[in-house]
Amino acid sequence: MDEGTMLLLVGAVLAASIAVGVGASRAGVPVLVAFLLLGMLLGSDGPGGIEFDDAELARHVGVVCLVAILYEGGLSTSWRRLRNVAIPAALLSTVGVFVTALLTGAGAHEFFDLDWPQSVLLGSVVASTDAAAVFATLRHTQVRRRLARTLECETGLNDPIAIALTIGLIHWIDDPTFRVDDVLFLMVKQLGIGLLVGIVLGVVATRVFAQLPRSTGSFAPVASVAAAALSFGVADVLGGSGFLAVYLVGLAVGSTPSRYRGQLVHFHEDLAFLAQVTMFVVLGLLVFPSDLPDVMVAGFVLALLLCFVIRPAAVLLSTAFSDFTNRERAFLGWAGLRGAVPIVLGTFVLSEHVAKGETIFNAVFFVVLVSALLQGPTLDRVAGALGLLEPPSPTVHTPLVVDESTPLDLIEFDVSSEYAIAGVHVRELGLPRSALIALIARGAKTIPPRGSTLVEAGDRLYVLAPPATRAALDDVFERWRRRV
């Protein structure tokens, strides 16, 4: 294929993607499902007729996409936001993954023609929630902050664990001398090296971004991509989990105040969405619709079992000793979104030529399809039905720029009569030192605030703060919203 034909093909696929995305949005169809169907239409069984069955290439593409997704997941959050939910999230990421893998494996052994190792391998492939799907969904919901942060932390941590488990099981299936203790040792080794590399390079990355001169600010995204690539590459070369390392480096960079943080977050959000779309198109290309009828019924049953039974059971066991309410556990059980990660792990199975690998990959197709159609679009409604939604977040306006070094966010906060902030003096609001109440709108009046000014129900507060304080401000707003 010459360069002109290749660029023509790429341009045609991109143009089709735009048309499909716009059409899906207007029709109310999840965009990622539309891209999955686009991949199937472009494939050899569809009118596109593209012959694509290179699992090794798909695996390489998937790894790069997953690095982009995990780095963005870490960058978009901060340790300050996650530290209070680290323990339950860690349990969901470990106990939850193993319980999901085993229970899904039991179901797969019953529904498919797979032996036990192959069945548990299928369970491990779909055991983790998907970072891109979770972060993208939570950005458009008003789920209680603690639950949202638990899901954010869980999805960042459980991907490396599920990946390590999948790789260990593939070794076990391929090598008869490989034992269960070898699988566990491989997992511990990968996670340990990944943790060490992530911490070390995370410290280095934060210092680099803190000292990046203002004159080279346009290179900040390049430096950020370099940090993600290096963290994965170093850990992988040393035999560790590059996925854990890249998430931790992203978390370190996102937790450190920097004049470039807002710029990097927006850049990597777009990059992660592109990566997720790429993976759904690749899944569509790799799936041959003519092979699906043989596993359709079993695939849908297994996917529904994972949504309604297995994930809730894993959440229940993982949070048995936490203080989550039953309604919160029910929501966490429903929020086990699957997406790009099972697709990537499915390409691992295909590229390693595991026996019955096509069956495992086709089952992944149904799990991802059901999750994208059923769980993602209903997450907000389920939270509302369970009474787990918060009031709308404060409105953030376009940053005000006093000079090049001091951009400020202007944030609106509406005071309800039920909030703890109503009846409190301005000097008692507990804002970070770098933030201030610029103005209070009370009906048709505007009030210049003083320390003795009393905040009343119905007021609208205008808060000025540097972008780097948003994590601290989120905690303050959460305290303000507490019911009296």
Explain what you see.
There is one protein chain. The chain has 484 residues and is mainly alpha-helical. It folds into 3 domains: 9-51, no CATH class; 53-385, Na+/H+ antiporter like fold (Up-down Bundle); 395-481, 2-Layer Sandwich (Alpha-Beta Plaits), CATH 3.30.70. Helices cover 64% and strands 6% of the residues. The chain contains 17 helices and 6 strands. It has helices at 3-27, 31-42, 55-75, 79-82, 86-111, 116-125, 131-138, 145-174, 180-211, 220-237, 242-255, 261-286, 296-318, 326-334, 340-351, 357-385, 470-481; strands at residues 395-396, 400-401, 407-414, 436-442, 445-447, 460-465. Strands 1, 2, 3, 4, 5 and 6 form a 6-stranded antiparallel beta sheet that branches. A hairpin with a 5-residue loop joins strand 2 (400-401) and strand 3. Helix 8 packs parallel to helix 15 (340-351). The protein is globular and about 75 Å long. It starts with a helix and ends with a helix.
Give a short synopsis of this structure.
With 484 residues, the chain is mostly helical.
